Amino acid sequence: MSLLTAKPQNQFHEIPSIYTLLFYTTPHSFHQDLEFPYMSTPPPITGVAEIVLSVRDLPAMRAFYVDTLGFALHCEYSIETDAGHDPDGEPTITFLTIRDHGTDLARGGHPVLLALIDYERHANARKRLTGHDVKQSTLNHLAFEIPATAYDDWQQRLSAAGLDPQPAAFPHMNAKALFFKDPEGNQLELICHAPSGT
Fold it and tell me: Please, which residues have CB within 8 angstroms of residue 72's CB and are 6 or more apart in sequence?
């Protein structure tokens, strides 16, 4: 069955792109000579700026990441309408500092952040999200780096909190990790350098 006669899988694939048509309907030698703009060397990316989770219980999730993982409160806002932030309202979005790593963005007031959004109350989230089910999410897990010297301390801390951390070793990457879940079922990983055999 050719590309042009194949039954589309969903509404977003009903019309093949011009690049897809060119790829499947032209000789291989042509592909080697054809250069698309997006295939050039990209400008640099310097790191992850923020991770954003949609949450059901914002206060509980904020408490977990602050009290258990030690993230610092950066700022939070109450935005339940298009009118913007209500200084007297309950927060609908919270930003927690994971690390201030000295980049231009961080020096300007935006460190590496974890953002927690109440998807039922936050104005922008309500327009885009219909529910919250980690079993159907495209997110697999979040991983945070820790010092190798803190591995045992973290294992004891997580165990004392009743989180049942599961150790894992990755000798091919010279790393080891602890896996556990936050209060809403998101899989978390704390990973550190570990020379092979340790």
Answer: 66, 96, 97
pTM of the model: 0.73
Q: Give the residues across from 115 on adjacent strands.
A: 52, 95
Distance, in Å, from the CA atom of 38 to the CA atom of 47, rounded to the nearest integer, reads 20
Question: Among 36, 7, 1, which Cα is nearest to 20's?
Answer: 36
91 phi/psi in degrees, rounded to 5: -55, 140
Cα-only R_g, the chain: 22
Q: Are 135 and 113 in contact (CB under 8 A)?
A: no
Q: Are the CB atoms for 34 and 20 separated by under 8 Å?
A: no
E strand segments, the chain: 50-55, 72-77, 93-99, 112-118, 142-145, 166-170, 175-181, 187-193
Give the tens place of pLDDT for each residue, 125-175.
876 766 667 667 778 899 999 999 999 999 999 999 999 999 999 988 899
188: left (phi over 0), alpha (psi -120 to 50) or beta: beta
